[in-house]
Backbone:
């Protein structure tokens, strides 16, 4: 079976580890992947350059959509508003709330679904995982179930058979993502996590901490260069 | 009660009759309205100038968001793609399918919800009515129920009390909208319906036909100037 004859997926992708491993996971299952990314004015926009590297390496199409107008409208998050500090430390309910962009995933998934419907693709895919659930309500299974229902109802008569949302790691962890990526030979050095968006990963923000921890727990060597010394997180 | 102390709504507004009457209806109920419009490359972009007139007349804020990148991505609809003809005639299942932009309302409502969440507004409002149900699956009550559920779940912990989607005419008709607008003194001449987006309403496309019919059935004089002679629709 060639890639073109199998099912097709539109994957919202950030250039981070989660969506990149999801892309490789879909491709490994014979699914034709289109990467869809969004420029919403995030300060870690460097992630989009990393995504471009993944698209080239995988040889899959990458569509980038300008949502900077939406980003400006919803400013107030540490991710888009330079006046809000990116918090240090582990993911936790309090510090990470500043990194929530209101209704971000629904906005992105809605656009991805529009593209999937317009092109007759079966799958709208997303790299959310269980570790996101605590902080981000729009990464939880209950949200996906309801959104899937809204998509099926709202596009009735315009959908291909078996149209669905898929988030293969929704009930897994970031450690599972590292393990699956390692198994699939994902070049992790071509992924970007840091919310600060500097020249190299800062090593101390929430996503850097989470990234380091996932590699450590998976027992897999982390190829990432961090500005802060390795183990800085553990010392806190 | 001043406008500021009451509930607040973010209304997705097009400059058409339905959303304009919805804006006046919300305001009449003491709700502070913010109009939110989208430039998605629609050929009837003139509607946005009409919306600006309504915002000025009502003295309410109007936010316009550039979604032209999304419009380009989802091209293929008669509304955004100049190579697709706008169909003439009444709304009907076959001819009007060309005017469907994939998942459009979910995309717009998602952005509106993001703005409502970011600003602590209680209501995301929409001017859909019963006459839209036949053609547009994303104007049907079942879609709104599911989307409302997804919004409440996906933004859990970030919502003000009584956050909700509201579409006051969802179970009504366009005739009800004309009657309510007339009752509220809505200046219908400041609204735009025509999908062709010429200098005046064409009088023959689906929305022009629907507009003329609604005024006729409501028994209210239609102040709109049409390019085609009045009654052209009836002759078909």
Residues:
């Amino acid at each position: 079976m060639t890639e073109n004859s199998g099912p097709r997926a539109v994957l919202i992708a950030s250039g981070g580890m989660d969506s990149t491993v999801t892309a490789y996971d879909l491709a490994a299952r014979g699914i034709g992947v289109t990467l869809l990314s969004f420029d919403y004015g995030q300060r870690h926009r460097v992630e989009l350059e990393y995504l471009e590297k993944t698209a080239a390496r995988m040889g899959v199409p990458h569509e980038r959509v300008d949502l900077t107008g939406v980003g400006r409208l919803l400013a107030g998050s540490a991710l888009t508003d330079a006046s809000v500090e990116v918090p240090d430390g582990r993911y936790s309910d309090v510090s990470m709330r500043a990194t929530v962009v209101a209704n971000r995933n629904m906005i992105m998934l809605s656009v991805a679904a529009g593209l999937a419907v317009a092109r007759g693709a079966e799958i709208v895919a997303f790299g959310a995982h269980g570790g996101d659930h605590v902080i981000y309500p729009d990464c939880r299974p209950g949200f996906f179930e309801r959104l899937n229902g809204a998509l099926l109802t709202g596009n009735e008569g315009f959908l291909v058979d078996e149209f669905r949302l898929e988030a293969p790691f929704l009930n897994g962890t970031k450690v599972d993502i590292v393990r699956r990526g390692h198994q699939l030979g994902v070049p992790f050095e071509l992924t970007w996590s840091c919310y600060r968006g500097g020249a190299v990963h800062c090593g101390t923000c929430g996503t850097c901490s989470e990234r380091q921890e996932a590699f450590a727990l998976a027992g897999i060597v982390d190829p990432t260069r961090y500005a802060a010394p390795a183990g800085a997180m553990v010392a806190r």
Q: What stands out?
A: The interface with chain B takes residues 63, 65-70, 73-76, 100-107, 110-111, 113-115, 117-118, 137-138, 140, 142-143, 146-147, 149-151, 153-158 of chain A (CB under 8 Å). The two ends of chain A are 51 Å apart (CA to CA). Residues 232-236 of chain A have pLDDT under 50 and may be disordered.
